[in-house]
Amino acid sequence: MKIEEAQKKVDDWIKLNGVRYFNELTNTALLMEEIGELSRHIARKYGEQNYKKECDSTKLIKEEMGDVFFVLLCLCNQMGINLKNSLIESIDKKTKRDINRHKKNKKLI
Description:
Elements lengths: L2 H16 L5 H23 L10 H23 L3 H15 L12
């Protein structure tokens, strides 16, 4: 699925099932909530914490990544932002800004 298709799929879902988009502030708070849930699972799988009971942490991480992406697409849709173009612009910006930065970072070598 292309990013534009994902944005349309989310928009169609909202119109069919969600009644309307939550406002931008609410969706931003929801995005932070989903990122927090993702962070919790990553901390338990890769960090020093563990789960209280056995679970499929890979499945949980995958689900939370999907939730993060869904809410991000909601924000893009309601703000009229094409995420594909934003990503391309971000990569271009980082390429120009960091063309040699990481190659010269002794901590990465």
